[in-house]
Write a structure and sequence with these properties.
223 residues; alpha+beta; 2 domains; five-stranded mixed beta sheet; 4 helices; 12 strands
């Protein structure tokens, strides 16, 4: 009897405009920086798919001509993609605001695409009352994402490549134009501007051309 592979479900952080683009069906792809040491001479990156189950889903860099498979050689250590593999799922984290109404003893929570009201004052993990105002998406708990009815994303494809390999078609799938850049920019141009804004200050700008995970996904109904 075959054992069904377990589907993992992990968090992924998106800005408010990108959440709106996902909700509207205009974003089906995201790029995230590959963390960890990149071996010198790496020209491509591939995933193992072998009879050895301990290696399935593990990635490794290669050297050689990307257009000539016979020239490839594995280099560096094997590593895992932190977002999972095709078929796995991602739940959305994004920024949100809270406002406590002491007269009604209710907290109003708001994020891109929706709002909810709960009884009592919002509390942090440490048991302290949350301040009114905005809260970074990295602190959004899973229960709140579910209460906002944010969709679950199912991974349909993952690959690793250099940032500047992005095509105009991929830039459309990234939904970069939804971030409010001038309509005169191409989709690729809008993506470059958005990437620089989010990742340039962290040392992963367009000119640095970092290795990135390219995660394609489809939207599932909120659970």
């Amino acid at each position: 009897m075959s054992v069904e592979a377990k589907i993992s479900e992990k968090p992924i952080l998106f800005s408010g405009p990108m959440v709106r683009a996902i909700l509207d069906g205009r974003k089906t792809m995201t790029r995230r920086v590959v963390k960890g040491p990149i071996p010198d001479g790496a020209t491509s990156c591939g995933v193992f798919s072998t009879s050895d189950k301990t290696l399935n889903g593990r990635w490794q860099f290669l050297d050689g001509d990307p257009e000539d498979a016979d020239s490839w050689g594995w280099i560096g250590e094997e590593f895992a993609c932190p977002y999972g593999k095709p078929g796995d799922r991602l739940w959305i984290k994004t920024g949100y605001t809270t406002r406590y109404d002491p007269e009604r003893n209710e907290t109003h929570w708001k994020t891109e695409g929706g709002w909810i009201t709960t009884h009592g004052q919002a509390m942090s993990k440490t048991g302290k009352p949350k301040r009114d105002g905005g809260h970074p998406g990295m602190f959004m708990p899973k229960w709140l994402s579910q209460e906002f009815r944010l969709p679950i994303l199912e991974i349909t494809d993952i690959r690793a490549e250099r940032l500047r390999e992005i095509t105009e078609e991929d830039a459309i799938a990234e939904g970069a134009q939804c971030a409010g850049f001038p309509a005169s920019l191409s989709n690729r141009g809008a993506f470059i501007n958005l990437w620089e804004k989010l990742n340039g200050p962290r040392g992963f700008g367009w000119l640095q051309n970092p290795w990135v995970w390219v995660v394609s996904f489809k939207k599932l109904e909120a659970q």
